[in-house]
Amino acid sequence: MPVTAAIRALRAAGVAYTEHPYEYEEKGGTAVSSRKLGVEEHSVVKTLVMEDDRKKPMIVLMHGDRDVSTKELARAIGAKSVAPCSPEGAHRHSGYIVGGISPFGTRHPMSIYMEGTILDLPKIYINGGRRGFLVGIRPGDVARILSPVPLRVAI
User: Fold this and answer.
1) Dihedrals φ, ψ of 86, to 5°?
2) Which domains does the chain have, with CATH numbers?
3) What is the pLDDT of the chain when averaged over all its residues?
């Protein structure tokens, strides 16, 4: 298994997790990873790097089968607008390439927001810092390590 910055961060935090490699498909998204791992897409969590109108980057954690209402997110955080970062911007802020972005072990600290209903799941699957590599983890452990702000911005 790969030892990524995300894995090093999880080990340093003493968090229990399971490793789930799969064959990555370009632009396959969570539909592909959930199918290949045999889990519900709702429990596969996307790590999205976004930025507000002042170009301040943030991470948004969202269910794989849902999208982020950028209008609701902007309203919730007091910004005029929020938009996804370019792939280059996401890499610059996180240190990861698109398709392999993990919220753990990012290059630069960023505010982290999480769709609140993710906390209701018994286990989630989230990127481990490399394309084709997810980790299974309890949402409570994610909340403890990252201290995300829970929001309701799914559509």
Assistant:
1) -65, 160
2) 5-151 (3.90.960.10)
3) 95
